[in-house]
Amino acid sequence: MNKGRLIGRIAQDIKIETNNGNTFAGLSLDIDESWISNEELKSRTQRVHVKASGQVAEKLEIMKPIKGNLLMIEGRMNNYSREMDGQRLYFSEVRAFSAEIIRESHDAPNTHLNQNIFCFIGRLGSDPVLRTTPKGQMVSFDIACNEYYKGEKNTQWIKMAIFNKTAENAATILSRGRLVYVEGKVHTSEYEKDGEKKTSTGIIVRSWKALDKKPGFQGSNETFSQDSYQPDDETNGFYDADDDEIPF
């Protein structure tokens, strides 16, 4: 499984291109989020990059959404690499399979409509790595999500990070090869390398559930209890980490 939904304001006018009879679209969404931490209301705006092709891109070309419109995108995380100037570059984006304009007004408040939620099922590629940050513990890992298109298998490796109280639990319970369901939000970090601005994208985990038995578990299927975590009311799955504390 690899799918989710974004609702946010279009950050810049959409770029539409046609190549060999195929239509492609590129856009960025600004998604507002707020949460309570230590009895203080906090907020941030997350920018997520989206690509569309085929019928979805053609629909965007017809709808002509503009900067500031509230747009809903349903799609999947897509990671890929390409060779440029002798270097292997890596990219992450949301690949849209549907798009709808939710609101055209620029002035009406819409924070309560914003959404950024993705769901995945996959296996851990390595044991989780537990780190201590200035604002608490954080655990990171990658999961492999298998997809099939026209009978061919494609594996997407998705970067994950867990903050707050659950990081240590995940580091203790999860391990390489375990099958896990993960729910979280797309996070894009910006950084500079060799004087150039770059971005890196992954998932901040809100909740998770192990879908298989722990290694060495001897009980029957009927007695197997799934390890899982749901966020508490205070954090609602949000986190207080800065971009330089996030491992992607």
TrEMBL record:
Name under which the protein is recorded: Single-stranded DNA-binding protein
The organism's place on the tree of life at top rank: Bacteria
Polar residues bias locations: 218-229
One GO-annotated biological process of the protein: DNA replication
Motif placement: Important for interaction with partner proteins: 243-248
This protein's UniProt keywords: DNA damage, DNA recombination, DNA repair, DNA replication, DNA-binding
Function: Plays an important role in DNA replication, recombination and repair. Binds to ssDNA and to an array of partner proteins to recruit them to their sites of action during DNA metabolism.
Subunit structure, interactors included: Homotetramer.
Compositional bias (Acidic residues): 230-248
InterPro entries: NA-bd_OB-fold, Primosome_PriB/ssb, ssDNA-bd
Molecular-function annotations in GO: single-stranded DNA binding
UniProt region (Disordered), positions on chain: 213-248
Organism: Desulfonema limicola
One annotated Gene Ontology cellular component of this protein: nucleoid
